[in-house]
Amino acid sequence: xxxxxxxxxxxxSPAAVFAxxxxxxxxxxxxxxxxxxxxxxxxKAYINGKSVTDTLLNPGYTVYDxxxxxxxxxxxxxxxxxxxxxxxxxADGWAVGTVSFAPNRNAxxxxxxxxxxxxxxxxxGDIKTIVTDxxxxxxxxxxxxxxxxxxxxxxxxHTPKLLGNALFDYFAATFPIIEHEGEFVREQESLSPLSLxxxxxxxxxxxxxxxxxxxxxxxxxxxxxxRIVITHAEVLDNDGNFYNDNYRQATNRMxxxxxxxxNCFKPSFSFQGFRYxxxxxxxxxxxxxxxxxxxxxxxxxxxxxxxxxxxxKINQLYHNALWGQKSNYIDIPTDCxxxxxxxxxxxxxxxxxxxxxxxxxxKRFFKKWLGDMRADQRDDGGVWGTIPxxxxxxxFSKKVYITEPCAAWGDxxxxxxxxxxxxxxxxxxxxxxxxxxxxWVEFERSDGDEEFLWxxxxxxxxxxxxDAGEDExxxxxxxxxxxxxxxxxxxxxxxxxxxxxxxDMSEYKNLKDNVYAAFRSYFMENGLPRPDRAxxxxxxxxxxxxxxxxxxxxxxxxxxxxLHFGLYEEKEFKGLADKLIELLDLFDGRMSTGFVGTPYLxxxxxxxxxxxxxxKLLFEERNPSWLYSVTHGATTMWEHWNSIxxxxxxxxxxxxxxxxxxxGSVCDWLYGVAAGITVCEDGAGYRSFTWEPHPDRRLxxxxxxxxxxxxxxxxxxYYSGDVIHYEITxxxxxxxxxxxxxxxxxxxxxxxxxxxxxxxxxxxxxI
Length: 767
Ligand code: BGC
What we know:
The chain is an alpha+beta fold and 767 residues long. The chain is built from 15 helices and 41 strands. Strands 6, 12, 13, 17, 18, 19, 20, 23, 24, 25 and 26 form an eleven-stranded mixed β-sheet that branches. Strands 28, 36, 37, 38, 39, 40 and 41 form a seven-stranded mixed β-sheet that branches. A six-stranded antiparallel β-sheet has the order 5-4-8-2-11-14. β29 and β30 (332-333) form a beta hairpin. The chain is globular and about 80 Å long. Beta-D-glucopyranose binds at residues 335-336, 341, 345, 347-348, 460, 463, 655, 660. Beta-D-glucopyranose binds next to α3.
């Protein structure tokens, strides 16, 4: 489509939804019609009053000034002979509206704009193209207000007002447009209310039983001018009252004004994260729950992975992680769907992406987001903390970024392409992203004074780890240690990627050796992390004081990174393994890890032959643990291990989400170790995989299946008395390497197989 036909409202005002309209006379029959549309802001398009699509939040969230998607809709069936009414409603959305925790509008533009091209093919072969130009008229709409964070006001009594003819928008015409790349966002399922609660404060609250992202559809027949106002919340407080302080400035308030007929309301230009709604204004004495439905929205990813077992709490944990993904995969991978963030935090995305790629087919979803990461990569190779990057400014021409590149967040640039390749076996993902991966590694190499260590930058560190003390955000592990470990890991992934693509990676192999040596000499002593390095040395970079002053060095996360990334000599393995167990014991048999250490912790315990301890952590219910939130009634993953503390009080209001998927990354251990299916890196896309289940009586059984590019893998095990039965289905184009009870490897080709072993012979290590 033509990238220049951008028009804008002659009387734009912030946060209101405007309609761009044109009536077109069609005098002869048509055989086909396609409508290509994009906007600055988010749009909904109609022909003769009918929506052209069931997809939401178009054109999606991208780095608009570098790539704005357009969508193409087949509208043949919506057009007839006679006068045709074309209408495109546009709201501020991500490009113009408030996004990010600072009061922050106008990131990409000062006003909304639209660009559309309707191509009609007539029966006689003629083609007519109708483009957006100054003949289009702009009207106010019934959606008087719409903002992601603040909700919407829909006033059915509003009389649309003509604001004038559209003007050309020469600024929007500088935005390069690209064909739609991502998955579309759609309504996916809906939930009935569980109950109506009259809280101790006397408020009317509806519980939908599930924390989620989407919106509530409300039906009502009242008097013209009656109002319904609802606000959203994820939890009730300790007294059972409605609680939404953790939404910060995001009011998530919906205001509906009735016109006296049968009305059905739902937002079109925003979504909310919630389990509960409060009826702030409701014109009826009785609440008929049948008039309310919670509609779940997320990107249209195909579900491919299933896991269930004989333990209800673990099933709930899996459910919570799955719903964390549903709630946070809305066009981009976000941290949370409710408060004034909902940003594409790169760290959260990389931590969870292995699990995500097992639950759903996320290839297309991430293809688009990685495109934005490439577009937003800094000239020096740095990758921002969020993608699309956000800048805090009232003037879109001066970008003051709200994040900085940092370790484990920017490493999403290497980790996510590699994870997608493992899961789906598509080398194109690696080709597309190889340069970005390389430039990120070069950034890590050049940042700070040392080539082979990454020192001195301010990082988010082992985010929310509990070893730094009560109410701290950054865990105790040295951030320089974490940074250099991730630098090493990223080089490793870059080399593996280059080798798949047939490139000469000798330069990076040298770099890897050098970083390995530097890491070990700087951060390790006697085969263990050096605990007090930071206390004796201070490193600074660019005048900024390093976070080295936080170093404690000898943490669970430090050992986990050394073991998981392979930063040890074989002879040190046992010492490291023993130290990890000792550190777990010191922490009363629990973990002290945050966003960085937690995703690898159970895998590392399995690697050191202590799956028994991994299971102990999995079944732990005291804080911090995965089941702590489950036993406290969670239906999604919490941001903090103890977002609700033991005494029923909440973590601080400034950062306490109940729908933050990062710790849901434990599911890749459930698929990969408990059920036992792990893809082989030389058989990416499950051309070959290992099957090494780790039964445990407390789970009783596991039913697991994975729809891979090669076909469906089914891996089950169950206890029956003293016997464990195993069932595996290997797709015909796959090979499974299974580990037998005697430790021997067996290769299975396509087919279904059953085995059984005596339970007592089966430690949780090997069948
Ligand atoms: C987000 C996190 C994110 C972090 C990093 C938070 O506000 O919600 O999930 O990764 O900031 O600084």
